[in-house]
Amino acid sequence: MTTPVPSLSPPPVPVRPDRRRDRPRWPALVLIGAGLGLVPWLFVLAFGLPATAVAAHWSTAWAGFDGLEALSLITTGALLGRRDPRGCLAAAATAPLPVVDAWFDVVTATPGGDRATAVAMAVFPELPLAITCAVLAIRTFPRRDPGAILPRSA
Fold this sequence. Notes:
Mean pLDDT: 86
Number of strands: 0
Distance between the termini: 33 Å
Order of helices and strands: HHHHH
Helix content: 55-70%
Radius of gyration: 24 Å
Number of helices: 5
Structural class: mainly alpha
Shape: elongated
Low-confidence stretches: none
Strand content: under 5%
């Protein structure tokens, strides 16, 4: 009688279906659109902010920050659109930028119409964009199946 020889190959690893293919593309398109929509706003900031501001390079500071925000939104949207796993990192880095933008817009606005506009911009495009990026960062974070981790070989 022969005894069976134990197999030297590792046990089969359960494979999780790739859920990235099932994700909708609209969040990526919205982020890219929002980033591209900021580009004309950069010119408004660069040439339209008052010259009497206390800061020496007021318009440069705002145009530079909103440029960073636009680039971050476009990068996040492009990575998510390609289903690149690094999209979660870009979304996480992008999420605080609209919050900072909203904060400084509101606190530096003069009372009256300027402040009302700043609050309206914070409530509608900026804070929802920040929340969207934060949610996307969490939802697109790559997860490993605990059973899929192979033991280390010697």
